[in-house]
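I'm stuck. Please check this protein.
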Amino acid sequence: MRWFKPSWQPLLAVVLCIGAGILGPMSAPEAAALADPTATLPYPWLGSKGFIFDLIIVGAALSMMRIPPLAAAFVLFVCGHAAVWLLLSGITGFEGTALLPFYLAIAAAWLLAWRCVTILSELEMPAGPARTLVRLVIPAIFGAWLLIVWEAVVRGAGIPFILLPPPSAIGARIATSLPILAADVRQTIFKAVLFGYVVGCASGFAAAVLADRFVFLRRGLLPIGNMVSALPIIGVAPIMVMWFGFDWHSKAAVVIIMTFFPMLVNTVTGLAASGHMERDLMRTYASDYWQTLFKLRLPAAAPFIFNALKINSTLALIGAIVAEFFGTPVVGMGFRISTEVGRMNIDMVWAEIAVAALAGSLFYGVVALIERAATFWHPSVRGG
């Protein structure tokens, strides 16, 4: 049995396929058509049901052979995703008719994807483009399967689109609403978020340095900062709109308030992270406060500062969108969400949410890349 390498995910996938085949039809229309020999099968995927099972079983069997791990992962990826594509394309147009075998087949394909991710996670690859690609593929498969399960449940169970549209409908709405989404992104992100993020983080950093330099500021400012950081957005946003108007300036003010105190607290904590031995060494070199700050304490505080920057990258977007609920011009992500909810255009609401999530992830990713480049010497980066 040296040629055979069993694994529980492919074996369970085969069992689920066998069970789905024994249980019979995958949907109510198929059951009705099969009861009448003269009836025409209602949709094309019925004829490929056996092919779907064959894909899953063949993929599971090949993955358990003694083949290179990358080849096994490729087979699992292709077979699992081809099978689920056939299942989802078949149920489209026949929402709410799926029976238990349909969900068993989806689960079997998911198990193949699970095994694929497991193999990729266990690969030991040298640093380089291939290793980076594998690291990107793993979360991409995870994310794709969240969308696949969402699509399968919504279409298979017949959940009304007005309650929860499937990802395919959201993607179609994004494709047909690009000019509107671009204008909303420009208003919310490239004006309110970026300006508020830069000003809030910079002022928080400056206040942290002053609080570190002067003890009375540290003892007096930090408790107030903790209190102000707990203020609810829905209470602050209307006040900022009254003070700064309905344009993006009031949203930027909310973002400044939300990003100021995480940067302040993290920077103060980071400035205290350097050890006593290092500080004593700097004193033996006759270094003054500012020399010690720039050559020792700020480099030691860099991970804390970048941690605040990453936290604020998501807080800034949330704050700007929520602030737009309380007054804004006829453009902006928060404005669009509140307006389209009133019109019951839920697919447009989800399109804005998807764009906001993508923008926030890209923003976070850019900050993380800058962190890796700036703190390459830190053990957390060198170990990664």
The first helix runs from residue 8 to 23. The chain is about 80% helix and 0% strand. The chain has two domains: 8-159, 174-382.
